[in-house]
């Protein structure tokens, strides 16, 4: 599935009617999901997040830019955040099934249309930039809205699209493709913006100008700048690569804040930047009270933070995903200014249609769903459920052993086993629905029209793909169930003996899940035209069957031995 994220920033954060009109223009486009709307009164700026297919995103982005240009008057705008236009910046981020080159081409089409039809000067930035000197948004926005009349007429800063004449109502807009950027703010227990700026300079990659200390002030900003022979300031590089930061004051909350853009959160993580800010604040007699995420954040960024703090607490990381997220939320203080809702703030959660999933049904409702006259959910989904139950029990026993003082020497092993069990559990949970979806895809393909040659060809392709999907999904379920049985061996040998019956249930559940999923593979095999695929999976399944029989016998023998010794 081709999916692009668009995160336009609009220079309006106070008038809810204008914000609603902009978001309504986005929502009316089919194929687009509006994921987040984050207005800021102090910044007078709203960050909107939506995702969709390339064509839908292109249309929705243009609608939003058009609506903003008609309703926002930049000549009357003021706010704490740097800005140069009604739609200040419109970033595009490839999420899945889309290359950067495809996104760049889309950004140029959008820029050309907005420039020509709306008479807005448009600058291409980041990966879409027409030359390297324009890749940095801060350079393009230098001087902000007020500098545009002169800037647009200069040869160096002629817009890429649109007029060179100053548009006093709409200003100018930057459009471009970038990596996933995390907009992140850290809150301080002070109303002194200069202290926030001082810390921001330490954190950001660009760093700060070197200064001689001022004996009358502890703030480095009060010292005299040290200059090179040519008069330029001597620079001290900041701590974090791919990080931009400024300090500002939030009137609404009566406190200063470090406003940060993490341009590559895998290079400079949320938690590392937060920890550094805490240390720098303490050096200045301040406290970090919490932080906030503006817009949406990738799941792995939050999971990484949660695991980081669990590790610092000497706690097991082999816990459910929601507990890892909660640890990140509490450790980073993400509820300090507003409630952090993972289902609205984490992009993977916001995109997924949780309410339609089998796994979100109550146990009673799921069993009722299985028991009705519909053929799906059936044996494949139940096999995935059995395997996930086994993996859950493995994670539980690993965690119980981890915290048992008599087994402290096994903490590293139990932590690793717990993490593996949680990962397998989560994958099998997804497959509970995926097996049913695969079966339904076959039913939907069979219902497709085939009156013309073209329709018949499309139907054949759809049916072929659906049959292969229904063949491969139970094979994956069987493979993961086999991994659960393998996990049971070290847990039955080294785990807390008081939990040995739980490992026994885990072995039996995962073994039953493997056998059930294997039956689904075999029953779907005759529908597969691809002989190479059929033969490969059949051979792999036989090999796994041979191995799981041995693992099952070892684990059960150990379970029985421990139970007999109690």
Short description:
Helix content is about 50%, strand content about 15%. It is an alpha+beta fold.
CA distance, first residue to last residue: 54 Å
Shape verdict = globular
Quote the average pLDDT.
93
What structural category arises from helix and sheet content?
alpha+beta
Biggest β-sheet: count, sense, barrel? Answer: 7 strands, mixed
Q: Tell me the Rg in angstroms.
A: 28 Å
Which percent band covers the strand fraction?
5-15%
Helix content: 40-55%
Low-confidence stretches: none
- Total number of helices: 17
Strands, count: 15
Task: Outline the secondary-structure elements.
Layout: E1 3-6, E2 9-10, H1 16-27, E3 32-40, E4 45-52, H2 54-71, E5 87-96, H3 100-118, E6 122-126, H4 137-140, H5 148-151, E7 173-177, E8 182-188, H6 193-203, E9 208-209, E10 211-212, E11 224-225, E12 235-236, E13 243-250, E14 255-262, H7 270-283, E15 288-294, H8 299-312, H9 321-332, H10 342-345, H11 347-351, H12 363-371, H13 379-402, H14 411-446, H15 453-494, H16 500-524, H17 531-565
Parallel strand pairs: 5-7, 6-7
Antiparallel strand pairs: 1-4, 1-5, 2-4, 2-5, 3-4, 8-14, 8-15, 9-12, 10-11, 13-14
